[in-house]
Specification:
Layout (H helix, E strand, L loop, with lengths): L2 H6 L5 H17 L1 H7 L7 H18 L8 H21 L5 H13 L3 H13 L9 H23 L5 H22 L1 H6 L7 H5 L5 H10 L4 H21 L11 H20 L13 H22 L14 H7 L5
Length: about 325
């Protein structure tokens, strides 16, 4: 976290500044696509986004830990400890685990509904015991807590030009679309962890089961049935992106370039999977660095255009609280 961003957000306490910096590190290390997009937000809003994603990443790392001697029992103990820290932080303010401290501060500043964090933790705990999903409806139930609520947490930070409840379904859909994209890209790695997120009935419709996926993974051979199933999952994911798309125009104009860039970059992951012949069971498809840079550059142009168009206009219907006036003036013209 740069001092400029923290100053812009009005975060002055040294311990809290260090906590936000830790969240930024987690976001930068684990979420390259979204970290890049976050840099297109006004500086005063970036710390909150890093706190939200840093906490999500922290919990997810507990669930997916591959440290020697780590089993589901130990993961459960760690999640329980994190849940306790979360509850105390949201109620009293965090002064222990830095990531929780930053999250609690962000939740207070933006009045984020605490239920979203509880639903997220419920989903994380289910990953310790649930290894597959019979239907897409079952998967959606899981993704409400693991993905949709991330979009809902973000809305108060991003701001909207419509009543927030009107934008919420689209924000939730975008969170789901991003996670479905990750499921497709990471299907082989998730299988190594014992999890299959592609719905069982979708796989079965193409003659695919866990054993076939495992054989493909172990032998490195493509199977037309598995490819067909992955292709259908890709098509399903693209439909969710279409559901999310109307929400982009509902955001505060200065937030749109960030979310639009993330929307494009995650969609590019789907394109990369397709271009790679839907070989996600064998290798992770990646978006070329040059492509990411090109999309980000386009986002910078949209940032500048949005600030010029909306300078002096009335604020959105639901806009985030502003930092202190001097700090806001100091960074009002910064793009990155």
């Amino acid at each position: 976290m740069t001092g400029r961003e923290l100053d812009a957000a009005g975060i002055t306490d040294p311990a809290l500044r260090a906590a936000y910096h830790r969240c930024r590190e987690l976001n930068a290390a684990h979420g390259r696509t979204y970290f890049l997009a976050t840099r297109l937000l006004p500086a005063e809003r970036r710390p909150a986004v890093h706190a939200l994603y840093g906490f999500a990443r922290w919990a997810d790392d507990i669930v997916d830990s591959t440290e020697p001697g780590t089993d589901d029992g130990l993961r459960g103990v760690r999640l329980t400890a994190l849940q306790r820290q979360l509850d105390e932080g949201l109620q009293y303010g965090g002064d222990g685990e830095p990531v929780v401290a930053a999250l609690a501060d962000t939740a207070r500043r933006y009045a984020i509904d605490h239920r979203h964090f509880q639903d997220f933790m419920t989903a994380m705990r289910s990953d310790l015991v649930v290894t597959d999903y019979p239907t897409y409806a079952d998967l959606l139930g899981y993704m409400h807590g693991s993905a949709a609520v991330i979009g809902l947490q973000m809305l108060p930070v991003l701001g909207t030009v419509v009543p927030r409840e009107e934008a919420e379904p689209h924000a939730a859909a975008l969170g789901v679309a991003f996670q479905l994209t990750n499921f497709l890209r990471d299907v082989g790695e998730d299988l190594d962890r014992g999890r299959v997120y592609l719905p069982t009935d979708l796989l079965a419709a193409h003659g695919v089961d866990r054993d076939l996926l495992r054989r493909c993974r172990e032998t490195g051979r493509q199977d037309r049935r598995a490819v067909a199933a992955l292709r259908e999952f890709e098509a399903l994911t693209r439909r969710v992106y279409q559901e999310a798309h109307p929400g982009l125009a509902m955001l505060d104009p200065v937030s749109r370039p960030c979310i639009r860039t993330a929307y494009i970059l995650y969609g590019n992951i789907l394109d990369a999977v397709a271009r790679d012949g839907h070989a996600a069971l064998h290798r992770r498809a990646v978006v070329r660095r040059r492509r990411r840079a090109t999309v980000a550059a386009g986002g910078l142009v949209r940032v500048a255009a949005a600030r010029l168009r909306h300078r002096g206009r009335p604020r959105p219907v639901h806009t985030p609280p502003h930092p202190t006036a001097p700090a806001a003036r100091a960074v009002s013209e910064e793009v990155v």
